[in-house]
Design brief:
By secondary structure, the protein is an alpha+beta fold. It folds into 3 domains: 160 residues, no CATH class; 198 residues, Heat Shock Protein 90, CATH 3.30.565.10; 96 residues, 2-Layer Sandwich (Beta-lactamase Inhibitory Protein, Chain:B, domain 1), CATH 3.30.1450. Helix 4 packs parallel to helix 6 and helix 6 packs antiparallel against helix 7. 56% of the residues lie in helices and 11% in strands. Strands 1-2-3-5-4 form a 5-stranded mixed beta sheet, covered by helices on one side.
Length: 527
């Protein structure tokens, strides 16, 4: 055991031993022999030593010590220790059933002792029950509540650390997503522009009035643009995730303007429309723009010189756009039909994007060429809303609520029980008081009938007979009365003994705790 732990154990033992040593001298307990006091201190020391590893055993030792000192379990000497070890039991023990079993065993053992050795069983059993509730169960529940509070705090810190880690992961994923979005935009926009540059270079190459050396330079430019497009696709493809959704950043121009710019670059494209334009900058407009741009890029790369038709038609609740290209030097959409550098990822990305907003996408051979057809609903959603997280339920909340309800229930039962017990105790103690002046007037030889008007209605059932100055007369019937109506303190008692004929044969004063003998009321009256 470490030194700080030893010091704490010694301080705890000293604090618990203090009432055990002083209660007898202050008159709060019945006087006990020195051997009993030493044995009690030794039991407390053993309980303190094992309280950390065996809290249930420490509480059991203290409860047995209390029952040995008083059948009703309540003693000023050991009740503080009983409450402390019950608190430690709730704080350190995980299981509930062993503690409840020990409480029940203590109650049964105390009830048996009261039935066998008790003088007035009813009030003693009330005191036993109240001591179990307020001196054992309440501190135990308080310890469990304290323990669950600490565990809840630890769980909260653990959850905070986990949420912080999840936040870092979410931020990293957001950065990766943004990087993929930028890569996608670069691939789509730069790839489209490079395809148009290659298309212009091809037109210059076949111009009839161009000198041969310029024609060669145009061919080189066209080849360089095509190679740059392929390299761009390979490099950017490393940054893109396979299932990354299509970026829907506003393009800055409409679909019609995109087609017009492609026509100015030399692409033989025709724009046909029979619809009203969707909301500018809306999701539907952005999806259609990406579909048309990808289709024109594929036509310029893989079918140069082929005529392209872009047709948009208004449906009942959306817009359908169709991009049809004829046969060129390379079949349109070859990237999706044969293994090339592009790998067909553009068309797959388009299909995923259109499907994500509730539309339909088709791409495939059409006659001698290739056709891309996409239907986008007018009220397309920007993205699927994230699922609403389930409300967080803190751990141990239900357990803490049950402990709190148990505390309230035990408090209510204890208040009723102890209140009733104290009322009965006060009634019996105050109705068994024989005033000292009346005691002084009692004369030996008087009959019980003649003294009935002087004697109280009740007698003391738990009189301190061990403090009597002399044993009672043989074959006599002794009655005990209190000299004062003070409660919860030790007071003098009077002993009146009657013979078989119910005549008073002896009267004695039993001094209160802490006094060996006091002058009798007869002596004081004589003075």
């Amino acid at each position: 055991m470490e030194r700080p732990r030893i010091r704490r154990a010694c301080l705890l033992w000293a604090a618990l031993a203090l009432p055990a040593l002083t209660a007898d001298r202050l008159g709060l307990n019945e006087p006990r022999a020195v051997g009993q006091q030493v044995a009690g201190l030794a039991v407390l020391a053993a309980a303190v030593a094992g309280a950390r590893r065996y809290p249930l055993g420490a509480f059991g030792l203290t409860a047995v010590l209390g029952l040995a000192a008083a059948p009703a379990l309540f003693t000023v000497s050991y009740c503080p220790a009983l409450g402390v070890f019950a608190l430690l039991l709730g704080l350190r023990a995980d299981r509930v059933r062993p503690a409840v079993a020990v409480f029940g065993a203590v109650g049964c053992l105390g009830t048996a002792r009261i039935a066998l050795l008790g003088v007035d069983p009813a009030p003693e059993w009330v005191v036993l029950t109240g001591t179990l509730l307020f001196g054992c169960v309440f501190p135990w529940l308080g310890g469990r509540y304290w323990r669950q509070g600490r565990e809840l705090a630890e769980a909260g810190w653990t959850r905070a650390a986990r949420l912080e880690g999840e936040q870092r992961i979410a931020e990293e994923r957001a950065r990766l997503r943004e990087r993929a979005r930028i890569a996608q935009d670069m691939h789509d926009s730069l790839g489209h522009e490079l395809s148009l540059i290659a298309l212009r270079a091809g037109a210059l190459q076949v111009a009839p009035d161009l000198p041969d050396h310029h024609r060669t330079a145009a061919a080189d430019l066209r080849a360089a643009a095509a190679d740059a497009t392929d390299r761009l696709h390979r490099i950017i493809g490393v940054l893109r995730e396979e299932d990354e959704p299509l970026s829907l950043t506003p393009p800055g121009e409409s679909v019609e303007q995109l087609v017009a710019r492609a026509a100015e670059s030399g692409l033989p494209v025709r724009w046909e429309t029979a619809r009203s334009s969707p909301e500018p900058g809306g999701v539907a407009e952005r999806v259609l723009y990406r579909v048309v741009r990808e289709a024109l890029t594929n036509a310029a790369r893989h079918a140069p010189g082929a005529e392209v038709t872009v047709a948009a038609a208004e449906e009942a609740d959306g817009t359908t756009v169709t991009v049809t290209s004829g046969r060129g030097s390379v079949a349109v959409g070859a990237a999706s039909r044969t293994p090339t550098h592009s790998g067909g990822t553009g068309l797959r990305t388009l299909s995923a994007a259109v499907t994500a907003v509730g539309g339909d996408f088709e791409a495939g051979s059409y006659g001698d060429g290739f056709r891309v057809r996409a239907y986008v609903p007018e009220q397309a959603l920007a993205s699927t809303p994230p699922p609403t997280p389930a409300p967080y339920t803190a751990p141990f909340t239900q357990a803490r609520r049950r402990v709190a309800l148990a505390l309230v229930g035990a408090a209510g039962a204890g208040v009723v029980l102890v209140g009733g017990g104290f009322a009965w105790y006060a009634y019996t103690e105050t109705h068994s008081v024989l005033p000292p002046a009346a005691y002084a007037e009692l004369r030996l030889g008087a009959s019980a009938h003649d003294l009935a008007h002087v004697l109280p209605d009740r007698t003391v059932r738990d009189a301190p007979v061990e403090r009597a100055p002399a044993p009672p007369p043989q074959d006599s019937d002794c009655r005990y009365y209190r000299a004062s109506g003070e409660l919860l303190v030790s007071v003098d008692h009077f002993r009146l003994c009657f013979d078989d004929e119910q005549r008073l044969v002896a009267k004695d004063v039993i001094p209160r705790a802490g006094l060996s003998r006091r002058p009798s009321p007869d002596e004081e009256f004589a003075r």
